[in-house]
Amino acid sequence: MDLNALPNPPPPGTFVVGAGGNIAPQLVLEVAVSNETMPTLTQTDLARYFVAGTGTRWWVGIKVFKNPGGTNRWWAGHASRRFTHGQFQNAADFSPESMPIVQSYNIDLNAPTQLVFHITVATLIHPCQPPANYPATLDIDLENIRQLIVVYSDTWTGRSIGLLKCLCVLHGYYVSESG
Questions:
Q1: Alpha-carbon distance 17 to 29, whole Å?
Q2: Which of 29, 38, 67, 117 has the fewest CB atoms within 10 Å, counting from its CB?
Q3: Cα torsion at 88, 91, 96, 100 (round to 10°)?
Q4: Enclosing H/E stretch for 92
Q5: Domain limits, the chain
């Protein structure tokens, strides 16, 4: 979205600007493939995206548990930057749309899902108003993501995060280059 095309462009300082002079990612996709624990992904990594000085407004996390010769499993969740009394805070709130956080026995990767994440556009571009007739949410259909993981997971090794990010972009999802 071109912020200059918004009905009321944001005042300077509204969005965190990165070293290259571009607006810092407002929406971050993090993918972990068998390389970190659930607490690392959902606590340590999540917290670093919402510390002071980051521009993250929304985080989507996906964890794939590869089990050669067994059942591959996965987890997906999302969180937004806490917004209290008209101000963004340096903390995250998990969405109830997220899969339950468990240490083992996550969702079978072969089981279809009807889960859809709804990312609120107003949160991403606050204090600007979304353009007229713009959808209120960016909807991420987890069944589409799950199918991409199933199709390409046999080719993944270790931290093949770039592959899923590229696939998401090819299927119409914007993915930041941070993290």
A1: 19
A2: 67
A3: 160
A4: strand 87-94
A5: 3-170
Q: Specify whether the CB–CB gap between 81 and 50 falls below 8 A.
A: yes
Provide the token pair at 171: 């299927």
- Provide the 8-state DSSP code for 12: T
Rounded to two decimals, the pTM is 0.80
Q: What is the largest CA-CA distance in the chain?
A: 55
> Tokens 């993981």 appear where?
149
Q: Which of 48, 51, 50 is nearest to 40 (CA)?
A: 48
Which is it for strands 87-94 and 116-120: parallel, antiparallel or unpaired? unpaired
The amino acid sitting at 117 is F
pLDDT by position in tens, the chain (length 179): 455 555 555 666 667 766 666 666 688 888 887 677 888 888 998 999 998 888 889 999 998 888 877 788 899 999 999 999 988 999 999 999 999 887 666 889 999 999 999 999 889 888 888 888 888 998 999 998 888 888 776 665 544 555 565 555 555 554 444 43
